[in-house]
Amino acid sequence: MNKKSEKLAIDNHKNQFSKDLDILDIDSLYIKYLGKKGIINSLFSKIKNLSNELKKDIAKDLNNFKSTVESEIKNKKASSGNAPKEHFDLTYPVKATSVGNLHPITIVTRELYQFFHYYGFSVQGGPEIEDDFHNFEMLGVPKDHPARELQDTLYIMEPEVLLRTQTSSIESRVLKNTQPPIRFVTGGKAFRNETGSKSNGAIFHQFQGVCIDENITMANLKWIFSKSLKFILGEDTKIRFRAKYYPEVEPGLSPDIECTFCKGDGCEICKYRGWIEIAGGGMIHPNTLEKANIDSDKYSGFAFGWGLDRIAMQRFKIRDIRLLINGNLIYK
Ligand SMILES: [Zn+2]
Q: pTM for the full model?
């Protein structure tokens, strides 16, 4: 092998490369010329067989050819819009795509917070594991009170530590530490020892509100019930009020809405009544105010609680309450 023939071989490849540059795509060019078994590597591997005086010249020529090939491929990439980006790293973790939607309970809770925030209510929270005092005693339900049987309690340590049966326990905590005017709402899970059915579950969600100030009456409560129910379920929602007993209020009332599934005709969701009991409330008992060191002669207030699960079911046409906390997507 002499210098002339070796030089010629490189020139041939150079000519071929300028033709290939127009014909082949970038990957094929790279593999053919710069790949492990590509032309340039194979030419370099032949250098070791040359005489010392030829080695230097041919190596220089080959290096020039290699640089040309590299820069031409880079130019071709840049002009085709595939220019390598700076710090391009194939091993870099991909950005996670967000999937799914907010839970129906979260949606209605946030909308209610928004509504009540507009009317000057703050948002409060409290523990799901409660003590007997905040869950019952403070709310006018002493240990021997029959109302306890309405709320079949799940105990962590009987008789003092329990899973809260109602979010009114948060009301106990806030009233104890605050003086009027008081306006707040709260939302969260409550727990009762219930057998699961289409309309009842052991875990359910409540939304609670309290307003204590001078001259607060049932009229204020009825107004806020009507306004907020229509805000969540639509202006054409039909509402009726019934007197109802709740141990922590006096007097108590319950707003029902016309069942959105059957429009009042009666179906299994509304237990063929045409109406759904969706919330309850009333005037806070003066004894509860006094226990919280609030002057019941000067101040009055209302408290109310919503069943968020039922609101979400009516709003999103969910026919079974268990779907709200069940992870099985094929469960019907
Ligand atoms: Zn119905």
A: 0.62
